[in-house]
Amino acid sequence: MARKIGISMPCCYILLVNLISVYSLVDQGMYRRNSYESATGSTGSFPFLMPLVSPKTPDLYLCTPIKVDPTTTYYIVGFNPNATMNTAHHMLLYGCGEPGTTKSTWNCGEMAQATAEEKASPCGPRSHSQILYAWARDAQKVSLPAGVGFKVGKDSPTKYLVLQVHYAHVDRFKDGSTDDSGVFLDYTEKPLQKLAGTLLLGTDGIIPAMKTEHMESACEITENKVLFPFAYRVHTHEMGKVVAGYRVRSNSEGIQEWVQLGKRDPLTPQMFYNVTNTEPILSGDQLAMRCTIKNTRHRITKIGPTNEDEMCNFYLMYYVDHGETLDMKYCFSQGPPYYYWSNPDTGLHNIPHIEASTL
């Protein structure tokens, strides 16, 4: 028989139904209600965990989905990770219109190595897709500001949540051990006006052997929305020295002013930290990111998913005070040797000097 995954709470209706549980498929279209009445403004918690997986391939990316109850709109207001860096290299939580497959788990490395195993993206190929949350290096719980939440469910394009876990090392699973890494989602049914969004800035590119490289990206905000930034997170692999994010705005004299949103050593816990400047981001502003990567290897290192590769990411959490969040979810560049802030066609100038030594 199918097993429904609910929430035993005296305050709220059920939030989520597992698309596929540990044991079997869940009957579609059937949503069990909690027998208790909903209390306006109350908060529940839902455990979204890997279904006791036992990965056997190093650097494997695994995904598992849950379907949001389509009859109600929910607001996710906090993320409490259930993972350690000894097991999971990093985790991402995607909001999807449809999952990449209907399987209980699947290989979902976007840049996965060639294997005989069937692969699919976290979200369906033509579906809504955005990253809501990211975790690495034993990061702690994240609570959103009061009155702010990620909208999912009935009145949102996010109909499914997909958890992605990167298992860099699998030695601990050779004896058949299993894993339930994941995140507890704090949520409320109380309607929230301040809707949260996450914008991911990143690069492609390569780092030459025995060289320190700046990996940069920048995008203009073209939508007529006012963004209130409140948290940021950085991510690289082992060679990252510093990651910094900026809001770029031209003053009345046409000079670009760079306001730092956050800067951090990426080898510290990769949690979301408070931004260093909460001034609104407006249409016409640019958001820019730089990773300083020091390649100590006697070979080229490329951007990629494994420990033999590197990554360069800056996540910005923000909210809008009315209306919907940005349609733009990602801002990526080709990276070196093709893209730099200083390229003439970027339109960027007055670029600050940012090095690891300035941390």
What can you see in these coordinates?
Keywords: Copper, Disulfide bond, Glycoprotein, Membrane, Metal-binding, Monooxygenase, Oxidoreductase, Secreted, Signal, Transmembrane, Transmembrane helix. One of its GO terms (biological process) is peptide metabolic process. Belongs to the copper type II ascorbate-dependent monooxygenase family. InterPro entries: Cu2_ascorb_mOase-like_C (IPR014784), Cu2_ascorb_mOase_N (IPR000323), Cu2_ascorb_mOase_N_sf (IPR036939), Cu2_monoox_C (IPR024548), PHM/PAL (IPR000720), PHM/PNGase_F_dom_sf (IPR008977). Cu(2+) binds at residues 89-90, 166, 235, 237, 311. The strands form four sheets. Strands 2, 4, 8, 9, 11, 12, 15, 18, 21 and 22 form a ten-stranded mixed β-sheet that branches. This protein folds into two domains: 44-192, Copper type II, ascorbate-dependent monooxygenase, N-terminal domain (Jelly Rolls, Sandwich), CATH 2.60.120; 199-333, Jelly Rolls. The protein has strands at 16-17, 43-49, 60-68, 73-82, 90-96, 106-107, 129-136, 142-143, 148-153, 160-167, 182-188, 194-203, 206-207, 212-220, 228-235, 240-250, 256-264, 273-274, 286-294, 301-302, 313-320, 330-333. Mean pLDDT is 85; it is low at 1-40 and 111-116. It contains no helices and 22 strands. It has 359 residues and is mainly beta. It is globular and about 60 Å long. A hairpin with a 5-residue loop joins strand 16 and strand 17 (256-264).
